[in-house]
Amino acid sequence: MHILAVYGSNTGNTKSLMYFIKEYFKSHKYKFTLLNAKDINAENIPSFSKHDLVILSSATWGGVQPTLQEDFAAFWSLISKNNFKDNKFAVIGLGDIYYPSFCKAVDFISDDVVKYKGSLLINSLAIADSWEDYKPAIKNWLQQLQNILKQQ
Questions:
Q1: What's the predicted TM-score (pTM) here?
Q2: How many distinct structural domains can be found in the chain?
Q3: Hey, what's the torsion of the CAs at 33, 14, 53, 82, to 10 degrees?
Q4: What is the predicted pLDDT for the residue at 63?
Q5: Which of 148, 42, 41 is nearest to 90 (CA)?
Q6: I need a surface site. Which of 11, 40, 119, 121 has the fewest CB within 10 A?
C-alpha cells in the first residue's frame, strides 16, 4: 500500500501533524510520500492514481471569508479533474476553534473531491490548531483509514 499526502502550512502546525501521520503509517509498513504544497508546481504535479490513498491537508485562513492555506490553494488550482479518477481521498485540517469558519478548508477540499466522478472521499477530520491535544482522536482516524485500506 502506498499513501501520498500533500499539505500546506504557514505556522508549522499542519506540517508537524503530517509528519506525525507519516510516522504512524510508516510504523505500520506503508509506503508514504509526503509533499509540501509549496514545492509543487505545474511541472511536478503528483499523480494521484499511483497511490492507494491520497491525504490532503490545509489549515483554514481568514475569519470572515475563510480560504485554504496559500500554498495549498496554489497547488489545488493546478489539479485537473483527470487527476481524480478512481482515487480514494482523506482530508484533515486544522483551524482556530474560536472562528465561525472553523476548519472550513476541510469542507472546501472535501466538496471538490466528491464532485469529481470516479473519486471517493473515505474520511475527513477537522481539529484545532493544537493538534497534539487530539492525538487519541487522530490515531482513531488513522486506524479507520488503515481499516479501509485493508479491505481493498
A1: 0.92
A2: 1
A3: -90
A4: 64
A5: 148
A6: 11
